[in-house]
Amino acid sequence: MQPILINTIVMLGEPAFDQRRFVQELAQASVTIDGVELRQELLPVAAEERQAFFLELLETGTHKQWQYFYSVPQSLFTATGLNPSLEEWLQEAAAFHAKNVKVNIGDLAGIPLVNKEQLLALLQRYQVNLTIENDQTEANGRYKPVAEALAAVKAAELPLGYTFDVGNWLVMKEDLAQAFATLAPQTTVLHLKNIDDAGQTTLLDEGSVQWQSYLLPEIPVVLEYPMAFAEIAAEVAKLRQALQ
Asked: How far is CA 219 from CA 54, 76, 84, 162, 237, in A?
């Protein structure tokens, strides 16, 4: 069965929730999902609280048979190569057995300067996959730089995947169909959200595009848009049906 995950940005539809409570509530709910994508910026600030949360995630993940992804809103590439904070992010991900870490692209000039063996060793040490994503910035959210980044990654044979974010292309008013047609072969994770004509995220069927046209077989699909907690089950069911 194709994995469906919930990104914790969903909780913004329930202002009373923090990330920890949201995961707790999700674990108790009658929602059939395959995992959760945690967001670094929503983790507890205090080290002790963060560690306690990671241990709780491990217990919940085992009980629910969930897989975890980790979203880090930081740039992977600097002008001189890899961001020196990468190992710190991977350590955080490993603390709750995250399977995938998603980061922003960053400075394209640094891609050819990356030591492939060093990057591979890091990913093997922490047992995670690493993906870059099209975001909502001029530098990393337009089609041209994203396509160039992925081409450079391929040329350098870097062990990286790509998270194709449907909604981010729409927010940037880029040609979603063109991006999908050309970048789908390199896509290893799909972030799914829809937006209305005003650029605001909506439930899947209330947005401006036919989201079913932008699904891919086999790879994980992550729902990533705010909604009321009571709406989650129906959105997941809708996606599950479309994937069949």
From this structure: 25, 22, 29, 11, 17
* 12-41 pLDDT per residue, tens: 998 888 999 999 999 999 999 999 999 999
Predicted TM-score of the model (pTM):
0.97
CA proximity to 71, closest of 3, 139, 163, 202: 163
On the 0-12 / 13-18 / 19+ scale of CB atoms within 10 A, 209 is middle
Q: How far is CA 90 from CA 81, 117, 121, 130, in A?
A: 17, 16, 12, 9
Amino acid residing at 56: E
Quick check: helix, strand or coil at residue 235? helix
Least confident of 11-15, 86-90, 163-167, 193-197: 11-15
| 127-144: pLDDT as tens digits | 999 999 999 999 999 999
Residues 6+ apart with CB under 8 A from 92: 40, 43, 54, 70
d(CA 219, CA 153): 20
Quote the CA–CA distance of 205 and 242 in Å, as a whole number.
12
Paired tokens of 235: 């959105």
- Looking at residue 198, what DSSP letter applies? T
